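Here is one chain, start to finish.
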Amino acid sequence: MKSSDIIALVSLIVSAAALIYTYLTNTKKYELTSQYRNEIIKWYNETMLILVSLRINTANNSCTTAEKCILLSKLSTQIEVGRFYFPNINKQDGFGEEKPSAYRGYRNLALDFLVFSYRLFEEENAKDYLDHAEVLQRHFTSIIFEIVEPTKFINDTKKYTSRTFVKELSYENFIVQEPELIEKYL
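Its structure:
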């Protein structure tokens, strides 16, 4: 075997190994990102259920003091669990140094929206602030949306699995179509 053949064979093996390594690390990265994303969405889902229940029950005066207490306890728990996803921000100014480690620094904005919601709903006149609660909820959702990046996730899923979940259609696409043409989209 000539030295040029050996070099070519070694180059082929190195290239194949690099290709396999790249594939495996990208796949692992995708799996870890997907797992983290799923955990955040699960936590978000549970938190939203509590927030929406508080808003609806407050609006309808259908929540007893005990039920409201339970919902507020659940929201407080979600805030504490959220500290693992959204740790406090250390601005290197010593703020909160005397506190336990999970509470040092400045609370993450995602959790601030939940804390403000908690404080709003614990008030007796919470019904007067339902519009505020909805604004807080929307900002909270927007922060989670930025973290979860649904469009990027859909594109990555399509890239790695060849699966498409969105047809890029909105309601406006349907109202301009003849009814019989709508069936082709469904």
